[in-house]
Every structure is written in C-alpha cells, then in structure tokens.
Design a protein that fits this description.
- The chain is an alpha+beta fold.
- The protein is built from 4 helices and 6 strands, in the order αβαβββαββα.
- It has one domain: Glutaredoxin.
- A hairpin with a 2-residue loop joins strand 3 and strand 4.
Length: 127
Amino acid sequence: MTLETLSPDPSFDPDSLDQAVLDALAGDYRYKVWGGDWCVDCQRQLPAFGAALAAAGVPDDRIESFPVTKGPDGKEGPGVEAYGIELIPTVVVEDADGEEVARFVEDADVSLAEALARQLADVEATA
C-alpha cells in the first residue's frame, strides 16, 4: 500500500516558498510521513509537502511513507504505535543518527514545509 497523497503536486511553485524553508528541509534528515489517502487534511497538505521536499532536493530514499487506516481503536498502520501517531498527517524528522529532531502533527498556522523548517532552524541554531 502506498501513500498517493505524498506524490508532489505538479502545480506547486517552489518559488512560493522562502529559500530558507527549502534549505532547512535539504539538511541531512530522514522524513517519516504518516497519512491516509482518505484523509482530507492529508489530501490538502501532503501533495505540497511532497513537492517542497522534491524542490529542496531531498532524495526519495530519505522519505518513508506509512499509510494509515481507521480502526476501531484509532489509527492503524506501520509504526503508528511505536511513534505515537494519533492524528494525521504526522511527519517525524530524524537526524542521521535516527534521533527525532522535529515533528508536525495534523495542522499549523503555516504550511507543513514551513512548520518543519522553523523547527529545523531551531535545531540548527542550537547545534
């Protein structure tokens, strides 16, 4: 099962994002993305995020997608329990050592890419 909503939106204009956002996303990170093609929030946010990752030059092998289904007790799918996934979309960003450095859960006042870039900029500032 794949997560089709993470496919980059072909109409996405990378110039619509600040270069600092693309630079932050391009760091040496792994992106783990939980979502569902049935989820309205995922349909709205993940195509633009996929396009932003592509524009930032993040290689496909550093992006893992985890399709989520609705179960009787909440979200179900690979890694849901291990990562405490309750709402989608959720994106966990890990550094090269596999340590979580940023997390986006469901919604923010800015795009998913911008929200993660802010967190990653804080990580870089304290490194």
